Amino acid sequence: MKKRDICKFIAAGLLTAFLGGAAHAEDALARVKAAGVLKVGTETEFAPFDFIDAGEHVGLNVDLFAEIGKEMGVKIEWVALPWDGVLPGLEAGKFDVVAGPATITKARMERYRFLPPIAEASVALLKRKGDTSINKPEDIAGKAVGGGKATAQLAQLEAYSATLPTKVTTKEYVGYNSAYADLAAGRIVAVANSLPNIAFVAKQRPDTFALVLPPFGAKSYFGFIGRKDADYAALDDAIGAAILKIKKDGRMAKIQEKWFATTFDTPDVVPTPNF
Which ranges form a coiled coil (predicted)? Predict the structure, then answer.
């Protein structure tokens, strides 16, 4: 190879390396850093994680992402929409990550990347305060219990019902507020939902509702959701690292205590789901 050809070869190599570096620099994390904004998709009808109070978007997710934004040096921009549009919105690139959060399941892990869990999602029961006929989960045998339509929690309730001497009569609700209203009116004896959600409801209405413990069914966790493609790997890593730092220094426990009136011991890595 002549000297001039060698120079061309070296120049081409340098150009390839430069372009490769430029492509890496333009991944999702680089774009978020350059814009100074992390766009977060969620719904606002999932108390205590995300809900509207006196016209203001509040909840555990709002507090937690405020801390994540501080760690990453970016502002948080919320994009709120109905839950059935949240995951399609993530895939369409309308925002960078989903706050949700969602129960970590095998089917969801095949499609999305979950970040380190932020709370336990195991299913428990909410009953009317003073109902002495239900003191433990198995006491719902043969009775009417409500659950969210097409939810992992309803599937857990139905699986648990099959283990009881007399099956539960399940009533499906599009929104949990309707289920809680039926429970308060005595049309059902309990509502099955994730422990953090019903713990919040019991805390808000202590004269009406009470928890039935322990939770039943397979232990599960809530996690935020990111995209699986390589372009988002560094961004998901950065958000995950921020979550773990917030957990380690005690900020997450304080936020959990604020919204759940209790704290949850969560794993640092996403566990293999039980269902």
Answer: none
3-state secondary structure of 143: coil
Cα of 239 vs its chain's centroid, Å: 14
Reported as type and span, the H/E element at residue 254 is helix 251-260
**pTM, whole model, 2 decimals?**
0.77
Runs of H (alpha helix) within 44-151: 60-72, 83-91, 106-111
Is 204 in a helix, a strand, or coil? helix
DSSP string, 22-64: HHHHTSHHHHHHHHTEEEEEE-SEETTTEEEETTEEESHHHHH
Which structure tokens are listed for 27?
């991944």
The pair phi, psi for residue 119, each rounded to 5°, is -170, 160
- Identify the bridge partners of residue 53 per DSSP, sorted by sequence position: 56
Query: What per-residue confidence (pLDDT) applies to 147?
Result: 93
Tokens 């009533």 identify what position? 171
Q: How far from the centroid of its chain's Cα atoms is residue 233's Cα?
A: 19
